[in-house]
Q: What sequence folds into this?
Protein backbone atom coordinates (compact mmCIF):
# COMPACT_ATOMS: atom_id res chain seq x y z
CA UNK A 1 0.00 0.00 0.00
CA UNK A 2 2.85 2.38 0.89
CA UNK A 3 4.63 1.56 -2.35
CA UNK A 4 1.48 2.26 -4.40
CA UNK A 5 0.98 5.57 -2.60
CA UNK A 6 4.61 6.56 -3.27
CA UNK A 7 4.23 5.81 -6.98
CA UNK A 8 0.95 7.77 -7.08
CA UNK A 9 2.53 10.75 -5.31
CA UNK A 10 5.52 10.69 -7.69
CA UNK A 11 3.22 10.70 -10.72
CA UNK A 12 1.15 13.59 -9.34
CA UNK A 13 4.25 15.69 -8.63
CA UNK A 14 5.70 14.90 -12.06
CA UNK A 15 2.49 15.87 -13.89
CA UNK A 16 2.14 19.03 -11.79
CA UNK A 17 5.65 20.16 -12.58
CA UNK A 18 5.23 19.45 -16.28
CA UNK A 19 1.95 21.31 -16.56
CA UNK A 20 3.22 24.30 -14.59
CA UNK A 21 4.12 27.42 -16.56
CA UNK A 22 7.93 27.44 -16.59
CA UNK A 23 8.01 31.17 -16.02
CA UNK A 24 5.81 31.02 -12.91
CA UNK A 25 8.54 30.68 -10.27
CA UNK A 26 10.77 33.51 -11.54
CA UNK A 27 7.66 35.67 -11.84
CA UNK A 28 6.67 34.99 -8.25
CA UNK A 29 10.18 35.70 -6.99
CA UNK A 30 10.29 38.94 -8.99
CA UNK A 31 7.26 40.07 -7.04
CA UNK A 32 4.42 39.26 -9.45
CA UNK A 33 2.76 37.29 -6.65
CA UNK A 34 1.20 39.40 -3.87
CA UNK A 35 2.96 37.41 -1.17
CA UNK A 36 6.32 38.30 -2.72
CA UNK A 37 5.44 41.77 -3.96
CA UNK A 38 7.79 44.67 -3.25
CA UNK A 39 5.03 47.25 -2.93
CA UNK A 40 2.09 45.16 -1.77
CA UNK A 41 0.92 44.16 1.71
CA UNK A 42 2.67 47.04 3.45
CA UNK A 43 1.48 48.87 6.54
CA UNK A 44 2.75 46.68 9.38
CA UNK A 45 1.50 47.87 12.78
CA UNK A 46 3.39 47.11 15.98
CA UNK A 47 1.28 45.14 18.47
CA UNK A 48 -1.47 44.52 15.95
CA UNK A 49 -3.47 41.32 16.47
CA UNK A 50 -1.28 39.32 14.07
CA UNK A 51 1.90 40.69 15.63
CA UNK A 52 0.70 39.67 19.11
CA UNK A 53 -0.35 36.22 17.87
CA UNK A 54 3.13 35.76 16.34
CA UNK A 55 4.83 36.72 19.62
CA UNK A 56 2.56 34.39 21.60
CA UNK A 57 3.39 31.51 19.24
CA UNK A 58 7.10 32.16 19.81
CA UNK A 59 6.67 32.23 23.60
CA UNK A 60 4.56 29.06 23.49
CA UNK A 61 7.21 27.26 21.41
CA UNK A 62 9.92 28.15 23.94
CA UNK A 63 7.73 27.00 26.84
CA UNK A 64 6.90 23.77 24.99
CA UNK A 65 10.59 22.97 24.44
CA UNK A 66 11.41 23.56 28.11
CA UNK A 67 8.39 21.78 29.60
CA UNK A 68 8.56 18.72 27.33
CA UNK A 69 12.33 18.58 26.95
CA UNK A 70 12.55 15.02 28.33
CA UNK A 71 9.82 13.73 26.03
CA UNK A 72 11.47 15.49 23.07
CA UNK A 73 14.90 13.91 23.59
CA UNK A 74 14.28 11.12 21.04
CA UNK A 75 13.54 13.82 18.43
CA UNK A 76 16.72 15.79 19.06
CA UNK A 77 18.19 15.22 15.59
CA UNK A 78 14.93 16.21 13.92
CA UNK A 79 14.86 19.47 15.89
CA UNK A 80 18.54 20.11 15.22
CA UNK A 81 18.37 19.79 11.46
CA UNK A 82 14.98 21.52 11.28
CA UNK A 83 16.45 24.59 12.98
CA UNK A 84 19.51 24.35 10.74
CA UNK A 85 17.27 24.26 7.66
CA UNK A 86 15.12 27.20 8.83
CA UNK A 87 18.15 29.39 9.53
CA UNK A 88 19.86 28.52 6.25
CA UNK A 89 16.67 28.93 4.21
CA UNK A 90 15.83 32.26 5.89
CA UNK A 91 19.21 33.73 5.05
CA UNK A 92 19.35 32.29 1.52
CA UNK A 93 15.78 33.08 0.42
CA UNK A 94 16.09 36.65 1.67
CA UNK A 95 18.97 37.29 -0.73
CA UNK A 96 17.17 35.43 -3.52
CA UNK A 97 14.12 37.65 -3.05
CA UNK A 98 16.24 40.80 -3.02
CA UNK A 99 18.04 39.74 -6.22
CA UNK A 100 14.90 38.67 -8.13
CA UNK A 101 13.11 41.92 -7.18
CA UNK A 102 16.12 44.03 -8.25
CA UNK A 103 16.65 45.45 -4.76
CA UNK A 104 19.93 43.84 -3.74
CA UNK A 105 22.93 46.08 -3.10
CA UNK A 106 25.92 46.13 -0.72
CA UNK A 107 23.69 47.21 2.17
CA UNK A 108 22.15 43.73 2.01
CA UNK A 109 25.40 41.90 2.70
CA UNK A 110 24.84 39.45 5.60
CA UNK A 111 26.70 41.59 8.14
CA UNK A 112 23.91 42.45 10.55
CA UNK A 113 23.92 41.11 14.11
CA UNK A 114 21.21 38.55 13.38
CA UNK A 115 23.17 37.29 10.35
CA UNK A 116 26.22 36.88 12.60
CA UNK A 117 24.06 34.94 15.08
CA UNK A 118 22.74 32.80 12.22
CA UNK A 119 26.21 31.88 10.96
CA UNK A 120 27.44 31.05 14.47
CA UNK A 121 24.40 28.84 15.06
CA UNK A 122 24.87 27.06 11.71
CA UNK A 123 28.52 26.47 12.61
CA UNK A 124 27.56 25.05 16.01
CA UNK A 125 25.03 22.69 14.45
CA UNK A 126 27.86 21.28 12.35
CA UNK A 127 30.67 21.43 14.90
CA UNK A 128 30.53 21.99 18.66
CA UNK A 129 32.46 24.95 20.06
CA UNK A 130 31.96 26.33 23.58
CA UNK A 131 33.50 29.75 22.95
CA UNK A 132 31.40 30.28 19.84
CA UNK A 133 28.31 29.44 21.87
CA UNK A 134 29.23 32.05 24.48
CA UNK A 135 28.95 34.80 21.88
CA UNK A 136 25.81 33.28 20.33
CA UNK A 137 24.16 33.12 23.75
CA UNK A 138 24.55 36.86 24.31
CA UNK A 139 23.80 38.15 20.82
CA UNK A 140 21.29 35.47 19.84
CA UNK A 141 18.92 35.56 22.80
CA UNK A 142 17.57 39.00 23.73
CA UNK A 143 18.54 41.01 20.58
CA UNK A 144 16.42 38.94 18.14
CA UNK A 145 13.55 38.88 20.67
CA UNK A 146 13.68 42.68 20.92
CA UNK A 147 13.75 42.77 17.12
CA UNK A 148 10.49 40.85 17.12
CA UNK A 149 8.90 43.09 19.74
CA UNK A 150 9.75 46.27 17.79
CA UNK A 151 10.43 44.98 14.25
CA UNK A 152 12.26 46.89 11.54
CA UNK A 153 9.53 45.83 9.11
CA UNK A 154 6.88 47.35 6.84
CA UNK A 155 5.20 44.22 5.46
CA UNK A 156 2.11 42.56 6.94
CA UNK A 157 1.22 38.88 7.26
CA UNK A 158 1.20 36.76 5.08
CA UNK A 159 3.83 38.58 3.01
CA UNK A 160 7.05 36.61 2.52
CA UNK A 161 9.09 39.27 4.37
CA UNK A 162 6.81 39.07 7.41
CA UNK A 163 7.02 35.28 7.56
CA UNK A 164 10.77 35.27 6.92
CA UNK A 165 11.45 38.01 9.46
CA UNK A 166 9.66 36.37 12.36
CA UNK A 167 10.61 32.81 11.45
CA UNK A 168 14.27 33.83 11.20
CA UNK A 169 14.32 35.91 14.39
CA UNK A 170 12.44 33.17 16.27
CA UNK A 171 14.78 30.41 15.08
CA UNK A 172 17.86 32.16 16.51
CA UNK A 173 16.83 32.22 20.21
CA UNK A 174 15.11 28.84 19.82
CA UNK A 175 18.45 27.49 18.56
CA UNK A 176 20.14 28.93 21.65
CA UNK A 177 17.51 27.20 23.79
CA UNK A 178 18.08 23.96 21.88
CA UNK A 179 21.83 24.06 22.58
CA UNK A 180 21.17 24.61 26.29
CA UNK A 181 18.44 21.99 26.71
CA UNK A 182 19.55 19.26 24.35
CA UNK A 183 23.31 19.62 23.96
CA UNK A 184 24.17 20.77 27.47
CA UNK A 185 25.89 24.07 26.64
CA UNK A 186 26.57 26.36 29.60
CA UNK A 187 28.09 29.84 29.88
CA UNK A 188 30.53 30.96 32.64
CA UNK A 189 30.19 34.37 34.28
CA UNK A 190 33.46 35.62 32.79
CA UNK A 191 31.95 35.15 29.33
CA UNK A 192 29.78 38.25 29.88
CA UNK A 193 32.78 40.57 29.52
CA UNK A 194 34.77 38.45 27.07
CA UNK A 195 31.76 38.19 24.72
CA UNK A 196 31.09 41.92 25.08
CA UNK A 197 34.70 42.69 24.16
CA UNK A 198 34.59 40.17 21.29
CA UNK A 199 31.52 41.89 19.87
CA UNK A 200 33.25 45.26 20.11
CA UNK A 201 36.30 43.90 18.29
CA UNK A 202 34.02 42.64 15.50
CA UNK A 203 32.20 45.99 15.44
CA UNK A 204 35.37 48.04 14.75
CA UNK A 205 35.93 46.87 11.12
CA UNK A 206 32.15 46.90 10.59
CA UNK A 207 32.08 50.57 11.65
CA UNK A 208 34.75 51.51 9.11
CA UNK A 209 33.10 49.35 6.44
CA UNK A 210 29.92 51.36 6.99
CA UNK A 211 31.88 54.55 6.37
CA UNK A 212 33.35 53.22 3.12
CA UNK A 213 30.18 51.64 1.72
CA UNK A 214 27.62 54.03 3.18
CA UNK A 215 25.87 51.13 4.91
CA UNK A 216 24.43 50.65 8.39
CA UNK A 217 25.56 47.19 9.50
CA UNK A 218 25.07 46.50 13.22
CA UNK A 219 23.13 49.82 13.14
CA UNK A 220 26.40 51.56 13.93
CA UNK A 221 25.81 54.43 11.50
CA UNK A 222 22.33 55.33 12.77
CA UNK A 223 19.19 53.79 14.27
CA UNK A 224 16.76 51.80 12.13
CA UNK A 225 14.63 53.56 9.50
CA UNK A 226 11.42 52.39 11.16
CA UNK A 227 10.73 53.23 14.79
CA UNK A 228 12.34 50.68 17.12
CA UNK A 229 14.05 50.76 20.53
CA UNK A 230 17.17 52.15 18.84
CA UNK A 231 15.20 55.26 17.91
CA UNK A 232 15.37 56.34 21.57
CA UNK A 233 19.18 56.09 21.81
CA UNK A 234 19.87 59.65 20.71
CA UNK A 235 22.24 60.86 17.99
CA UNK A 236 25.95 61.48 17.48
CA UNK A 237 28.37 60.38 20.19
CA UNK A 238 25.52 59.89 22.66
CA UNK A 239 24.04 57.21 20.37
CA UNK A 240 27.23 55.12 20.63
CA UNK A 241 27.53 55.64 24.39
CA UNK A 242 23.92 54.56 24.88
CA UNK A 243 24.44 51.62 22.53
CA UNK A 244 27.44 50.39 24.53
CA UNK A 245 25.71 50.81 27.89
CA UNK A 246 22.55 49.12 26.63
CA UNK A 247 24.56 46.23 25.16
CA UNK A 248 26.40 45.63 28.45
CA UNK A 249 23.14 45.74 30.42
CA UNK A 250 21.53 43.31 27.97
CA UNK A 251 24.51 40.95 28.31
CA UNK A 252 24.23 40.90 32.11
CA UNK A 253 20.45 40.40 31.98
CA UNK A 254 20.94 37.59 29.46
CA UNK A 255 23.36 35.88 31.82
CA UNK A 256 20.88 35.77 34.75
CA UNK A 257 18.91 32.69 33.57
CA UNK A 258 22.18 30.87 32.92
CA UNK A 259 23.39 31.79 36.42
CA UNK A 260 20.31 30.27 38.04
CA UNK A 261 20.41 27.18 35.80
CA UNK A 262 23.99 26.44 36.85
CA UNK A 263 23.25 27.33 40.47
CA UNK A 264 20.42 24.77 40.49
CA UNK A 265 22.61 22.14 38.86
CA UNK A 266 25.32 22.72 41.48
CA UNK A 267 22.91 22.28 44.37
CA UNK A 268 22.50 25.98 45.06
CA UNK A 269 26.21 26.64 45.53
A:
Amino acid sequence: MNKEFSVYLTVVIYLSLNTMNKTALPGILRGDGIMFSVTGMQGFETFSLMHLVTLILFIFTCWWLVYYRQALMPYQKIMKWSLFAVLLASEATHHMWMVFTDQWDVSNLPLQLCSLSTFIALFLFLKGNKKAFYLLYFIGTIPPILSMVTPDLIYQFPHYRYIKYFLHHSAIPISVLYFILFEGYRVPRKAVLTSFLTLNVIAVPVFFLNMVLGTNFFYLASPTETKTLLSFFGTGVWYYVTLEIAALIVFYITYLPMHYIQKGENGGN
Q: What stands out?
A: Residues 39-265 form one domain.
